[in-house]
Amino acid sequence: MPLALAPPAFAVALAHRWLAENPRQALAHFTWVNNVTLAADRCRFAYDEQGSCLTRRLDLPFTAVAVLAETAAAVRRLAAELVPPHWPVYTLAPTSTAALLREAVGVDEIRPEWQMVFRGDAGTLDPGPARPLGRADLPAMMALARLGGAMVFGAEAMAHGAFFGVFVGAELVAMGGVQNELPGWAEIGSIVTHPAHRRQGHATHVVAALVRYLQARGQQTFLCLFQDNEAAFRLYDKLGFAVLNELVLVRWRRTR
Questions:
Q1: Is the pTM of this model over 0.70?
Q2: What is the DSSP track for 28-59?
């Protein structure tokens, strides 16, 4: 199957079935579900008649491919339609997908992540001074993202979801926003605090503002973080997030 501009019907149907009947499965594959539903116009697709489908997101500052496949052969064949050989690629997926990628392509790095879902009472969260961010704030957001290593944040990020920030005087010292949306769900991320302003509750206010904003829109909130980020885990746990899935971020490349 050559490169396609729209997802196949079977992929769209599967994504909506998961969302309706098995939300945990949908969230375990949330990058793929997002790509074949609400973000389909920002993706390219390669799929086969056996039900395998790989998607490449085009609006991120790095190459991201979501994988749904049964065999390593299908991954190799479909990946060849989406990325050149030896091109660095990132995939965030369940641990089972990491095992498949190890067999199919050259894996450079695997980092385990927790996926956490908000289970608390949004009404108890205090957004404090956090306020919505707009296009005029983009230069300050880009600078803060670089300082904090927010790899997903790019110039187009604000076009796809709301962001909130905290200012000290005229300086943006903390921010975070919506990274991905699924029907009924939203992933928050790019939550960054300036190193000189950490441990002052700014990230708490940003997350509170985001959760309350999303609840008002009828969306449930989830996020992902590296498992070695213990400080962030404690923060989200305190705010009412609970672990739902164990995921892995895989950096890989086609070797042939």
A1: yes
A2: HTHHHHHHHTTTGGGEEEEE-TTS-EEEEESS
Structure-block tokens of residue 206: 């940003």
For residue range 216-248, list pLDDT tens digits in order.
999 999 999 999 999 999 999 999 999 999 999
- Distance, in Å, from the CA atom of 49 to the CA atom of 152, rounded to the nearest integer, reads 32
Q: Please classify residue 86 by burial: count the beta carbons closer than 10 Å to its beta carbon, then call 0-12 exposed, 13-18 middle and 19+ buried.
A: exposed
Structure token digits, residue 66? 């979501």
Give the largest CA-CA distance in the chain: 57
| Six-digit token string for 203 | 């990230």
- Which residue ranges form the domains of the chain, and what is each CATH number? 9-114+249-253 (3.40.630), 120-239 (3.40.630.30)
C-alpha to C-alpha distance for 253 and 256, rounded to whole angstroms? 9
- The one-letter amino acid code at 195 reads P
Q: Which residue has the tokens 């005029």?
A: 136
Can you read off the two tokens belonging to residue 78?
């479909």
Q: Identify any residues that bridge with 101 across adjacent strands, giving them in sequence order.
A: none
54, 229 contact by CB (below 8 A):
no
Distance in angstroms between the alpha carbons of the first and the last residue of the chain: 18
Cα dist from 63 to 55, 79, 102, 180, whole Å:
11, 12, 18, 16
Q: With b meaning 16 or more CB within 10 Å and e meaning fewer, what string describes 17-33?
A: ebbeeebebbbbbbbbb
Question: How far lies 245's CA from each of 52, 85, 171, 206, 234, in Å?
Answer: 22, 31, 36, 23, 17
